[in-house]
Amino acid sequence: MTELLSLTGIGKTYGTVRALEDVSLTLRTGEISCVLGDNGAGKSTLIKIIAGLHRHDEGTFTVAGEEVRLDSPRQALDRGIATVYQDLAVVPLMPVWRNFFLGSEQGHKRWGGLRIDADGMRATTRRALADMGIDLPDVDRPIGTLSGGQRQCVAIARAVHFGAKVLVLDEPTAALGVKQSGVVLKYVTAARDAGLGVVLITHNPHHAYLVGDHFTLLKRGRMAGSHARAEIGLEQLTTEMAGGSDLAELSHELARPTAPPADLAHPVDPAHPVDPAPADPADPADPADPADPAEERPQP
Amino acid sequence: MTELLSLTGIGKTYGTVRALEDVSLTLRTGEISCVLGDNGAGKSTLIKIIAGLHRHDEGTFTVAGEEVRLDSPRQALDRGIATVYQDLAVVPLMPVWRNFFLGSEQGHKRWGGLRIDADGMRATTRRALADMGIDLPDVDRPIGTLSGGQRQCVAIARAVHFGAKVLVLDEPTAALGVKQSGVVLKYVTAARDAGLGVVLITHNPHHAYLVGDHFTLLKRGRMAGSHARAEIGLEQLTTEMAGGSDLAELSHELARPTAPPADLAHPVDPAHPVDPAPADPADPADPADPADPAEERPQP
Amino acid sequence: MSSSDVLVQGRERPAALRRLAGRPELGALIAAVAVFLVFAAVAEPFLRVSSFGTVLYAASTIGIMAVPVSLLMIGGEFDLSAGVLVTTAALTSSMVSYQLTAVTWVGVLVSLAVTLAVGLFNGWMLSRTKLPSFIVTLGTFLMLTGANLGVTKLVSGTVSTKPISDMEGFASCRWLFASEVTVGGLTIKATVWWWLGLLLAGSWVLLRTRFGNWVYAVGGDAAAARAVGVPVARTKTVLYLFVGFGAWVLGQHLLFSFDTVQSGEGVGNELIYIVAAVIGGCLITGGYGSVVGSALGALIFGMASKGIIYAQWNPDWFKFFLGAMLLLAALLNTWVKRRAERGPR
Amino acid sequence: MSSSDVLVQGRERPAALRRLAGRPELGALIAAVAVFLVFAAVAEPFLRVSSFGTVLYAASTIGIMAVPVSLLMIGGEFDLSAGVLVTTAALTSSMVSYQLTAVTWVGVLVSLAVTLAVGLFNGWMLSRTKLPSFIVTLGTFLMLTGANLGVTKLVSGTVSTKPISDMEGFASCRWLFASEVTVGGLTIKATVWWWLGLLLAGSWVLLRTRFGNWVYAVGGDAAAARAVGVPVARTKTVLYLFVGFGAWVLGQHLLFSFDTVQSGEGVGNELIYIVAAVIGGCLITGGYGSVVGSALGALIFGMASKGIIYAQWNPDWFKFFLGAMLLLAALLNTWVKRRAERGPR
Amino acid sequence: GCSSTGGRRAEEARAKASATAGGAVTTPRWKVAMVTHAGAGDAFWDTVRKGAEQAAAKDNITFLYSNDAQTQNQVQLVQAAIDQKVDGLLVTLAKGEAMADVLGKAKAAGIPVITINSGQEFSARFGALTHIGQDESTAGQAAGTELAARGRKNVLCVIHEQGNVGQEQRCGGARGTAGGAFQVLYVDGVNMPDARAAVSAKLQADPAIDTVLTLSGPMAATGLQAIQDARRPVELDTFDLGTQVVSGLKAGTVGFAVDQQPYLQGYEGVDLLWLYRSNLDMLGGGKPVATGPQILTKDDADALAEYVARGTR
Ligand SMILES: Nc1ncnc2c1ncn2[C@@H]1O[C@H](COP(=O)(O)OP(=O)(O)OP(=O)(O)O)[C@@H](O)[C@H]1O
Ligand SMILES: Nc1ncnc2c1ncn2[C@@H]1O[C@H](COP(=O)(O)OP(=O)(O)OP(=O)(O)O)[C@@H](O)[C@H]1O
Ligand SMILES: [Mg+2]
Ligand SMILES: [Mg+2]
Known about the structure:
The complex is a heteropentamer, with two copies of chain A, two copies of chain C and one copy of chain E. Chain A is α/β, with parallel strands linked by helices. Chain A contains nine helices and eleven strands. In chain A, the strands form two sheets. In chain A, strands 6-8-9-3-10-11 form a six-stranded mixed sheet, with helices on both faces. Chain A has a four-stranded antiparallel sheet with strand order 2-1-4-5, with helices on one face. The longest helix of chain A is centred in the middle third of the chain and has 16 residues, at 178-193. Chain C is mainly α. Chain C has a two-stranded antiparallel ribbon. The radius of gyration of chain C is 22 Å and the shape is globular. In chain E, strands 2-1-3-4-5-11 form a six-stranded parallel sheet, sandwiched between helices. In chain E, strand 4 (113-117), helix 5 and strand 5 form a beta-alpha-beta unit. At the D-E interface, helix 3, helix 6, helix 11 and helix 13 of D face strand 2, helix 3 and helix 7 of E. Strand 7 of chain B pairs parallel with strand 1 (7-8) of chain C, so a sheet runs across the interface. The structure holds adenosine-5'-triphosphate (ATP) (2 copies) and magnesium ion (2 copies). One adenosine-5'-triphosphate sits between chains A (14-15, 17, 19, 37, 39-45, 86) and B (145-150, 175).
């Protein structure tokens, strides 16, 4: 397990907004590192720094032991960092297959790579999407006419297809249906097994715990916790993610059809902390929750 | 429970793509109707017809008993239909508060409503967001600089704030953290309790089952099922959503670190259907899964 | 709900500072000051009070149109016909009064109806055909250019209108559109007041009314605006009507200050109006900008083009200097904005 | 994995049909045919073989520039300096040859270097300053206009260049840039071949190379393109170099066919190039369009402007007719495209 | 409401006496094309065209007019006229060399050509029957001489279309003979308020200027306004006529105007082509025919007023 990436004391300011402060993260080969946190905690910002989309203002960022300050996503890609962005980074008016290969176009051999191999690229795109359960007979459609989830699948399939040493995914399963989510998680583990390092952002603690080896928690741009898988259980992770506040309490409230609408202004009552439901991590035969397969992966 | 909306045999074609065919849906006051389906099944298309963003090609659409063919979102809004779109429908360069009130600006009394009440609108926006757990001291920031989840919260807060008779939500919790998701679900039930009708799209069967009164399943643009809450259990719903394929099986595969990456092409094995985990709907004291509060709402 | 339960999304710098830095016109203001200082340094006559009046006049004739044009650009559209529409306004007013032998006010009012009709046509074509405004207004531009000439020749028999200064109503019209007051050597023309009025009205509408909110929205993302119920087509049409109104004002000034009007005038000015708006901070893609900025843009253009004359630079290179000045002003503008956004460290 | 397990996302109509309907130039093609038919019906001389040569020539002088300009627009940028850059190219070539008393080829090569340098400057300014291309190239436009005049006056003492037809190399240059062949009454000028060559090359690059993919991407969404590793700045700069190349070709044609060059020309042509591109289906906001479409746009413009002459319509109304034709062509264009997209029922 | 002064009614009252008689020639209906380098809506060229149209009406000629300020477009327009198989061609040669090829084609097609207005030195070389007009440099020199005679010391020549050869030649000619200091100012001729501000700016910047020389009727009117704005006793002189130039001459605000009788250029061009076709006549035996320069002053103003108002002078 060699070190692929390492961020130490990273800070980032947008204009007058301090989005990240003193965040550290290390990624090794064959490891899945999950980044968790509330909305606006700075997860996407962290990803964008790794992907070369933004430069960090403070701290050091090393790739394969060498300190870098990436100026463009090209540099990140050249260092083997493939990224799926939360806003997907697709060009709406371009056909699906052109989007799929954008920046990594495949050349015809005969033309010395100058002429692109459109048919080959179409076929590859169709295949890669079919593998995710999306059958798109006409990959010449502008990608802007696809549904939100279909677009997400294209972006993920692209990163996986061209993924080199590090795969970075920003909420890949957010817009996906049950089946597609499963496929994506499977890709993630397959990538890990192939020796890649994966940085995964998700709001779903079950998804995270299912595949993650390391968990970093962000809160208002600062690290609120960093745990190896061995140090933390699903329940604890879930509680930390929810900021310690009580969501079971919410279920109670939801259950009360008499709750006055005026109460809307105070949806979460912090006064009632409860213990989240214990999961059963031991029995692999126990059929897991299909939507959020909470089953624990045995340590290799 | 009067009927608010009713769609019968609705069909819609985009250019050469048949997105919806013969879909029916009825919504009554104080009811939450969930629409479920795979990526690209046509859920957003259905929502857009209800919201007046697209016109349906076939079938009839009645609002409050009157047959309509909506030409613009304005007409839908005027009929009391407030919508949160999957792509949010915010104007990135505009300040948060202007986006919040866009189309429903609040006028100063003194100026006969001509002059807008900017400070009042700022305060209202700040309050509505704080209620969702988002503290944004500067609502003058362009909304494009907010994080994905923050933007989602603004869009939801807007629809709830101006919500009239029907609230339509397209995957509102997709990009949200644990806490924000809970808040949104709470809003949804509060709206229902206030006598509104709600159409809710989500990929999360737990979220759906937690609040839904009726479930419509879409598959490749056609109805694959339509069930009242009484007719269907969480397990059955989850299985139907997953297209009957086995996701527990996926958990098995994920658990095998030796799975060859070549296997990626066949992520889901349809040959092994399993019974999903049974939920415990009976005990309200049982602390529910904080991320996906699976607790059943007692029937009133 | 305890405040600790509320997520503070990052920590922010003082909002007031950020708000100033975020103003679209900040850069233009500093660029305007810079251009002023440059010419104040190199051109001695530039600082005279009388010169100030001349520069102000030049700026006002651009600025009157830059106000509605910048609003239109914030609304995400172009108007290439704005330049010749001014001429159309002047020609119509003159020819109607002359041919009907009517009090000039009749021509003035008919002219207003015509310019508003052209604005309506532009807006209607745009929303009905969904063509880009560049094409629609280019069509209108060519058609107006042709019609200006064709109608004038048809009616007057020549390419310019007949003098109307001996007609009734001319004096009062002139007072409204083309008079001037001199205070302590500074001559202020009527256009400056019109400019100021339009500027205040436009700025107020943009920032303080519901319609202004819609303007930002239709320019920033028309689809999103439509989705939340903003009447996109109507908003854009009203913006074209504004342009028509501005063209009417400037056209009347042209007529009542020059008495006769050449039918071939106005071509190319539309670009100057757009430049003023863009220098003033309007995004060419819409959704961002300010009316005050457009005024600063007009001022920069007026100062640069007249400053070069005061400085007596080689006239062969006039356009070269003008281009370089504009580029430098625009550069300074963005540089300032970027610095300001980054904020103090 | 069984095929039934794969979601078919909606059911689609035959892709071939949809693909034809989706071509940006389909509408322009039908509009071109319509314009042709109109003038064939009303203007008897329009159908003569010799007239066809004239129309083709007129179209080619627009089309040569419309090819790179449309590529640039697909890449999301404008070039307002394209019109005067042609004049710059001709002036440079002529003056260098004359002043050095060198073989005209020397001037031709220096001119190429100059136009490419201007393209480089535009691209560099754009990517370094992040200013909108409208402003950057407007600056270049004004500066070039000024420099054309200033340098010509400085060097030649007048506003036009000296004749160079008696210089060595003129004949061969003329053959390359301004010769003509007559086949059965139809005179085809060298510009037509250049146009055809640029058209094929441009179309091939756009549709069949990696660079073409980048052009679509930087125009469609520069941020997304950058995120997946497309060198946005470099792509746009290369597009400006293309424009420089086109201007060089057309400039050499002007010089070697007219012998002398007026320094004040070319202003306003940049809009015609943009019009050709837009009529041909390019989106003004970038990311969509075709090179073949720009050729059809040039053809429509050439046919309309010369057809009006052949039809002997009142020249006073020339621009009016031209504007109306353009608007109708654009309308027909969108109407066809929308019909085609809706598909057969 | 109605205006009791001015307007169309007044004009009609003035023009009661004027009537036009239709000519009668027996020649077949020929087609003559005129292609000029004029910009759109230029008053000077409108007068040229009026003369040509008048002669065409008299001589039973179909008259085709087209114009474009850009060399390549003007060449294309000449080519289009040749395509239309006209019986005669009138061309301006502002861009001399550029026309060589296309005029060769006209000759090859057997179309008689007469050049008008500018380009006297190329006319014979390109095989034109004759040249009718006035060299711009000559006109400029005449203006310069007049300026010198009036003792003007510091002249500002206002070019309203930068890079226009004819305008440069006018200013250049005047500079050569005017004697005193001579400066050039470029303004935008289609933006009168801006042009006005530019001229007054120049007058404010350089107090030594005592004369403004404009190159067209409309620019003269704008120049007068600028002089007013600058509040300085500056004389305005101009090329070409216009209603405001004549009233200026009358009022003494305009010193003199250099005229080249544009109506005559158009009229004679068509008429000479007709004469050539019907009788093989050629005025002056093919030597250039000069239509100017004519210096007009206050004394001529009254006589000119009527014709200028009508748009034929
Ligand atoms: N504007 C459009 N033009 C053409 N096809 C479209 C357009 N919008 C959607 N489609 C197609 O219609 C089908 C249904 O899309 P829709 O967006 O309704 O799906 P969805 O159920 O919302 O999916 P998701 O869960 O991924 O958001 C898809 O096949 C999609 O590609
Ligand atoms: N371009 C920007 N300009 C200014 N502020 C920004 C910008 N992008 C993000 N921010 C701010 O930085 C903070 C972190 O944003 P970020 O997008 O990293 O959050 P996130 O953790 O990805 O949230 P989510 O889960 O909602 O996607 C937020 O307060 C956000 O408003
Ligand atoms: Mg994010
Ligand atoms: Mg959707």
